[in-house]
Design brief:
Oligomer: single chain
Number of helices: 16
Largest sheet: 5 strands, mixed
CATH class of the largest domain: Alpha Beta
Strand content: 5-15%
CATH superfamily of the largest domain: Periplasmic binding protein-like II
Distance between the termini: 25 Å
Number of strands: 8
Structural class: alpha/beta
Number of domains: 2
Order of helices and strands: EHEHEHHEEHHHHHEHHEEHHHHH
CATH architecture of the largest domain: 3-Layer(aba) Sandwich
Strand order of the largest sheet: 2-1-3-8-4
């Protein structure tokens, strides 16, 4: 039995609980409890430019910019922050890496760091300092950003937990008192919802975040893109079972999901077109904070649940992972590392998690103790999104091949083709196999 999702091995045992009050020394040499301080010396006259993905929760960017100002006020280092959509950050980051010019720091997604690891600054000192201080990094963060097991090529930021978002009243009206925990009953519920005129829907376009439910579909039936030796094995009996199940599931979807990108299911849910989808907490936050009484009523009805478990017998959660990368070409490497350290310290990271209203799950175990995860019980399912995250390159080693295959939406395209009927499951698997083999050349 695969136990990746059950591992709790944390890097470092000298962690300080996130609820402990922290020292407030200079940001490049802060006071630390029973731990050697990290010494960074920002370059004189340093200026930093940060490229990050646009917010899905307004409180995220608001709190982030408050922390940016705190950093500037404390250090005198000017920081410019540019915001782009998820789909736009990836190509711009690749161009910057290849040309050696652009932002000093990039907040990117999923396995992008492994597309150009040699273009990234070694941040092992910062990562190890933070890991020891805040209870340890979860395995997924290490898999993405410490691919050789030795050097950190980026600092984990967290993940936008993609939980099941559903209307509780609609699920109960369909005959289910709780959200199903297994795939058989999940399919029964989806059929019942459609019969009631309150269907569900999941993105099948090239959606960077919401399309990752397709990984869950394949994995929960025991399929995988590659094995532990990075041999492509997506064309398999297990994947076939997943796609056959997916065809039955797709028959319950609201029309139009083949063209859905990341914003579409949010809109469909809030418009009352669907009763269940996979998403971060942003749907709930948008409804809860809306001045529209109808949306406020929807917010009261929204609940969140983890993904159902299939024949694999273990959680196989897939969600969008966020990383923080310092480009090697930066003129101010010490200042850039000081910025990431500052943003990840509890005095800044805690308020940012709260401002984002749990949209980002913590990559550090110590921060799982913060009250943001429990003061509203609807947030709690998102707390362990990084803890339970299975990287998209499962079950192989992450690197250029896994990053390229993920960026090319191979698994998502296969699922969309097979379950919609545009190709037979066998044709879709064979096409995915050939596409993946172009990246994985073992």
């Amino acid at each position: 039995m695969d136990n990746f999702n059950r591992r709790r091995f944390l890097e470092g045992t000298a962690g300080v609980a996130a609820t402990t009050a922290l020292g407030t020394g200079a940001i490049w040499a802060p006071a630390v409890h029973a731990q050697a301080a990290l010494t960074l010396k920002p370059e004189k006259g340093a200026k930093l430019r940060v490229l990050r993905w646009s917010r899905f929760v307004q409180g995220d960017i608001d709190a982030y910019m408050v922390n940016v100002k705190k950093f500037t006020d404390k250090t005198g280092i000017e920081v410019r922050v540019d915001n782009e959509g998820w789909e736009d950050v990836r190509p711009k980051a690749a161009v910057a890496a290849n040309t050696g010019a652009g932002p000093d720091i990039i907040l990117s997604t999923n396995d992008d760091a492994n597309l150009y690891p040699d273009k990234l600054l070694d941040v092992t000192d910062v990562a190890e300092y933070l890991g020891k201080k805040y209870g340890g990094w979860y395995p997924a963060g290490q898999a993405f950003l410490k691919p050789d097991g030795k050097k950190w090529i980026g600092i984990p930021l967290g993940a936008a937990g993609a939980m099941m978002v559903y209307r509780e009243s609609h699920v109960k009206a369909a005959g289910f008192n709780e959200f199903p925990k297994d795939t058989d009953n999940f399919l029964k519920m989806m059929r019942a919802l459609k019969e009631k005129g309150t269907p569900g829907g999941f993105a099948l376009g090239n959606a960077t975040g919401d399309g990752l439910w397709c990984n869950w579909l394949v994995w929960t039936f025991g399929g995988k893109l590659v094995d532990q030796n990075n041999k492509v094995v997506i064309d398999s009996p297990e994947t076939m079972k997943a796609l056959e199940y997916g065809k039955e599931l797709y028959a319950t979807f609201v029309p139009g999901t083949l063209s859905w990108l990341d914003p579409n299911n949010n809109k469909a849910f809030l418009d009352g077109q669907i009763s269940v989808t996979n998403n971060g907490i942003s749907i709930y936050v948008a409804a809860k904070n809306s001045p529209d009484p109808k949306l406020q009523e929807i917010a009261k009805d929204i609940q969140h649940a983890v993904y159902p478990i299939g024949p694999a017998g273990v959680p196989t959660e897939s969600t969008i992972f966020f990383n923080q990368l310092i480009m090697k070409y930066t003129k101010y490497p010490q200042a850039a590392k000081a910025f990431l350290q500052f943003m990840m310290e509890q005095e800044q990271f805690g308020p940012w998690l709260t401002g984002a209203q749990a949209y980002i799950a913590t990559p550090l175990d110590g921060y799982a103790k913060l009250p943001v995860w429990t003061d509203d019980p609807k947030r709690t399912p998102y707390r362990d999104a990084v803890k339970n995250l299975r990287p998209a390159g499962y079950a192989g080693k992450l690197g250029y091949a896994s990053a390229g295959a993920a960026a090319d939406f191979i698994v998502i395209n296969m699922v969309a083709e097979a379950i919609s009927g545009s190709k037979t499951p066998k044709e879709a698997m064979e096409r995915a196999q050939k596409r993946a083999e172009r990246y994985y050349r073992v």
